[in-house]
Amino acid sequence: MANDSPKPVPSSAAADDLDAMLARALGKPLPAAGPTEVPMAEEAVPEEVPESAQRCGFVAIVGKPNVGKSTLLNALVGQKISITSRKAQTTRHRITGYRTQGTDQFVFVDTPGFQTRHGNALNRSLNKTVLGAVTDVDLILFVVEAGRFNLADAKVLDLLPKNIPVILLANKFDLVHRRGELAPWLRSMQERHAFAEFVPMSAKNLRDIGRLFDICGKYLPQQPWMHEPDELTDRSERFMAAEMVREKLFRLTGDELPYTSTVVVDKFELDGAMRRVAATIVVEREGHKGMVIGEKGEKLKRIGTEARQELEKLWDCKVFLELWVKVRSGWADDDARVRSFGYE
Ligand SMILES: Nc1nc2c(ncn2[C@@H]2O[C@H](COP(=O)(O)OP(=O)(O)OP(=O)(O)O)[C@@H](O)[C@H]2O)c(=O)[nH]1
Question: Which family is this sequence assigned to (predicted)?
């Protein structure tokens, strides 16, 4: 088993050694300092692969909030299927994305960042989702910010089963300017868990994503694919609509709006080639409603326009999107409400 024999880390790695080690882990050259945006992949349908040659497995992406899990999932799938924002706790559901490359089919499971700060019903539900996601997989990508590790990371690491290989994925490597300082960090990380491999990278760098595929491929068991090679996700269009509105909501309101605001799709209809969506943004207080609507309704209008444009791109059709805002105080503390809004 790969994680029975962690890679030895040089005991007194100088910056050069570390660079060489990182280069080996990543394949040369090291990532450029600035991140490059990952373009949406034009999904090429893979050539016929005989069933006997197919490999297929589950890969869970775990980590505390805001380390870049959703950015990574989107880049791996080659399409935006998970929303991202600077606001922690954007991902609230287990999202499965697929990617088929050559003989390999990867089934990726994205998880909400594990919540340690508040014990409300929403967070209890989120944490249960994380636990469910890591128990039955072939490989775990434990995502941290390169060079950093705190209590929140430690709590996630503690949850990981010992019998499944875990790759330490040191994300946001583009933000590390003194790579030499990573050596002691890496040593301390190896003491915390017998990681199968160490991958410093940037989820925003397409070349790093290619290398990550090569690294992960060898952990997939040999078995027939579970999905069509051009399938990308098991999430419904209705779900994607709610997620897209939620992303724009968080991006455009910044830190003013508490993360407990959510989006519920009230209507989803196919009208010829067009999709008609009506959704409600649910906030906890009257004051939050104003933040969402903005002066003369400008903010809400922008949220609607940006979400509509992204959905039109995603589905390649015209979208008619109607948005409402409602106040439901205390919903995130109420188990029944949390369930009624679609959380498991
Ligand atoms: N510089 C840099 N920023 C990154 C990288 N990966 C992600 N980010 C940024 O980090 C922020 C958080 O990314 P997300 O992908 O939403 O993080 P997450 O872990 O899914 O967050 P939760 O949904 O809260 O669990 C966003 O602003 C991303 O653009 C990276 O490799 N380099």
Answer: Belongs to the TRAFAC class TrmE-Era-EngA-EngB-Septin-like GTPase superfamily. Era GTPase family.
